[in-house]
Amino acid sequence: MPGMTLRPLLSLRAPADFADWFRAGGEYTIRVARSLDIDTGGLSADVEAGVAAMRADETDVEPAVARVVAATLLGDAAFGHPFLQWTPRWYRAAMTLPIELADRRLSRVAAVYAERARRRDGTSGRVTDDTATEDDSQSNGSSPVDRPTFSTPSSVRVDGRPLSAHLSELGFAERFLLADAVLHVEWFCDVARACGLSVPESSFERTLTESASYYAGLRASLSPETRRIQRALFGDDAWVRDVNTTYRLNSTLLSVWEGILRRERRRLARVSESDSPLRR
Fold it and tell me: Which of 139, 143, 169, 234 is the most buried (most CB within 10 A)?
């Protein structure tokens, strides 16, 4: 497999194997929320408890902890395939097998914690490796932790046209930025809600709409609010670096991804409102 070894992924099966994976995602959620002045409440303690439990292969945890673990891992499991649809064909060919494997392993571990959250907090339904179902009867108002869905180029429309019609006009780095700018908004919102954070829905909806148009080269600038949100979200370069190094994936492609995200985060920190995307 060019640019990545599958061997480290093959050995990941138990909760302990994914403790640092979860830690990276939990820390990212906390960093973004704090950057945006979203009250994180007890999330730090829940993440710490989740990491400790996973390292001990312990699944009998408090419902709040189980929900944070399940939502984070399910978000990561579901993220890969939609992301690949935004990328060039050669990248999809290189990354499909690793992403399929990571999806299966993450989903299986996440399902254990999702089921634990349901049993302990009184919700019902069950997460499987491939899908999630929800029973409408929820005794305490907590919603089940379901596998999220993410946008694809054909499902996002700008001025009445799907973004898939514009992908051929974009270069490699531009496609990466567009994909991440859309999907990490969706990932954060889904995980943050599951963690009990109060997400400013209208702000994130505007961010999603503006970002899809902007990073496709169809909008001249981002509003200050959207630029602030994206600057925080593009901190996922640290997540990519953390997972790549901690799990010794030795992925040149992930290193390239990390660099693209880091440069965009730094650019957003210094650009004026009238600045245009990377490609201009």
Answer: 234
